[in-house]
Design a protein that fits this description.
The structure holds 2 protein chains of 2 kinds. Helix content of chain A is 40%, strand content 18%. Chain B is built from no helices and 6 strands. The chains are: A alpha+beta, B mainly beta. Chains A and B meet through α5 of A and loops of B.
Chain lengths: 312, 79
C-alpha cells in the first residue's frame, strides 16, 4: 500500500513566535540569539535578505542594527516550547498519526484517507496561522524522505504558496523537479556524504533516486539503500509516535553575573535539579545517579566544582 | 471599551480560533499597534468602534494595515 505522509514545519519558528505577540516586529529584519545572546539561531526573511547566515556570532552582524534597523532578541525557550505544543496539538487533529520530529516540525500520516492533499495542506496552514499566528510550510509525499523534500520545495519555491505534494505532478514532472534539487537537500545526506556522492557523479536528488540500491548499499550502508527506496516512493521509515525516553537529562544555564555566594549557588543547583527531576517524571522514569557541576570561566579565574552521588 | 464592559487594567481572554465576525470584540493590530475594539463590517468597509464616547470610531482605509489577532471571549474584571 502506498503511503501519504506530510511534513509540516514552522517558518523561522523562534522569530515567528516573537512576532505572534509583538506585531511591531512584522516586516522588519529580526534575529533571535542563542543562550547568553551568543549566536543567531533564528532569522526573519528580512534578516536573511540582509545576508545574515544561520549560527553566526551576534557581534559579526551587530553593525546592522544601526545601518539596517536589525532587531535582535534574546531567546525565550519557554515561549517557543509552549507555542510548539500548541502547534503540534492543532496539527495532530488533522491526521490519525503524528510524529513530533523537532520543536518546529512534525510528520503526519494520511495513509488510507481519501483527501485532496493540497487542500488539506492549505487548511492546516490556514488553521495554524489563525490559531497561533505562525506561518508554516507543508510537504506531502509517499515516504518521510519525500515529504521532507516536498517541504523544502514548498519553502523555497514561492509559486506553491507554502504547500507542495508530489502527487500533484506526473511521474515525468516529478523527475524533472528532482533533477533540479541538489542531492544535499535529501534528508540524511550531510556534507561528508555529499562530497562522496559528488565523486560518483551523483549531484541531484534524481541522480540518487536512480542509483543502483544494491551497489550503494555495499559502498555506503543500509541507510543509504533505504534513502534510495524512500526517494522511489517506498516508505521504509515508520512514524515514531512515541519519542524514546531520554536516558540522560541535563538542566544547565549560564549565570548573568558571577556567583560568589555559596547560598546563591546552592539555590541555583537546587532549582535546576527540581526542573530536571520534573522532566524525568514527565517521561515516567527513575534515576540511579545524579551529578552537578559548576564552572566559572573568565579571563583570570577558572574554577570547577563537581559532585556526584547516588540517589537515596 | 467601557461600553463593552472592558475597563482599564482588566484581563482579556482571547480566543484566536474564533472567526472575527462583525459585531465581535477583537484584539487587532492596526499599523502594527495593538488595540481592542468592536469590529464592524458592512459592505466592503471595516470600522473599529471604541465603545467609549471619548474615543472616535476608526474607519479602516486603504493604506492602513489591519490584522485581527483574536476574538475576545471573556473579560476578567478587577473589582
Amino acid at each position: 500500500m502506498s503511503h501519504d505522509i506530510a511534513l509540516v514545519d514552522g517558518n523561522n519558528f523562534y522569530v515567528s513566535c516573537e512576532r505572534a505577540f509583538n506585531p511591531a516586529l512584522e516586516q522588519r529584519p529580526v534575529v533571535v540569539l542563542s543562550n547568553n545572546d551568543g549566536c543567531v539561531v533564528s532569522r526573519s526573511n528580512e534578516a536573511k535578505a540582509l545576508g545574515i547566515k544561520m549560527g553566526v556570532p551576534y557581534f559579526e552582524v551587530k553593525h546592522l542594527t544601526k545601518s539596517h534597523g536589525l532587531i535582535w532578541l534574546s531567546s525565550n525557550y519557554t515561549l517557543y516550547g509552549d507555542m510548539s505544543a500548541r502547534m503540534m496539538s492543532i496539527l495532530g487533529a488533522f491526521a490519525p498519526e503524528q510524529e513530533i520530529y523537532s520543536i518546529d516540525e512534525c510528520f503526519l500520516d494520511f495513509t488510507g484517507m481519501v483527501v485532496d492533499q493540497i487542500a488539506r495542506g492549505r487548511k492546516m496552514r490556514a488553521t495554524v496561522r489563525q490559531y497561533i499566528g505562525i506561518q508554516t510550510c507543508v510537504g506531502i509525499g509517499p515516504s518521510k524522505t519525500m515529504a521532507k523534500l516536498a517541504n523544502h520545495i514548498a519553502k523555497k519555491q514561492p509559486q506553491f504558496r507554502g504547500v507542495f505534494a508530489w502527487s500533484a505532478l506526473t511521474a515525468t514532472e516529478q523527475d524533472a523537479m528532482m533533477a533540479g534539487l541538489e542531492v544535499g537537500e535529501v534528508w540524511g545526506i550531510g556534507r561528508r556524504l555529499n562530497a562522496q556522492l559528488d565523486n560518483l557523479g551523483i549531484r541531484s536528488a534524481l541522480d540518487l533516486k536512480q542509483a543502483d540500491p544494491a551497489a550503494m548499499r555495499r559502498r555506503f550502508s543500509v541507510v543509504m539503500e533505504r534513502t534510495i527506496a524512500e526517494l522511489n516512493g517506498v516508505a521504509c521509515l515508520d512514524l515514531e509516535d512515541v519519542a524514546p525516553r531520554k536516558e540522560q537529562i541535563m538542566c544547565s544555564r549560564s549565570f548573568g553575573r558571577p556567583v560568589t555566594d555559596l547560598a546563591d549557588l546552592k539555590e541555583a543547583v537546587m532549582s535546576y535539579t527540581v526542573r530536571a527531576a520534573a522532566r524525568m517524571r514527565e517521561q515516567s522514569s527513575a534515576c540511579h545517579s545524579r551529578s552537578s557541576s559548576s564552572v566559572a570561566s573568565n579571563a583570570d579565574t577558572s574554577a570547577r566544582h563537581k559532585c556526584r552521588g547516588p540517589v537515596s | 471599551m467601557i461600553g463593552a464592559g472592558i475597563h482599564n487594567g482588566d484581563l482579556l481572554i482571547v480566543d484566536r480560533s474564533l472567526e472575527p465576525k462583525s459585531g465581535r470584540v477583537v484584539v487587532a493590530a492596526l499599523n502594527d499597534e495593538l488595540t481592542v475594539k468592536r469590529l464592524h463590517k458592512r459592505g466592503g468597509t471595516i470600522t473599529l468602534k471604541a465603545e467609549n464616547p471619548a474615543y472616535p470610531d476608526i474607519p479602516v482605509k486603504d493604506g492602513h494595515e489591519l490584522r485581527i489577532c483574536g476574538v475576545v471571549a471573556y473579560v476578567v474584571h478587577v473589582p
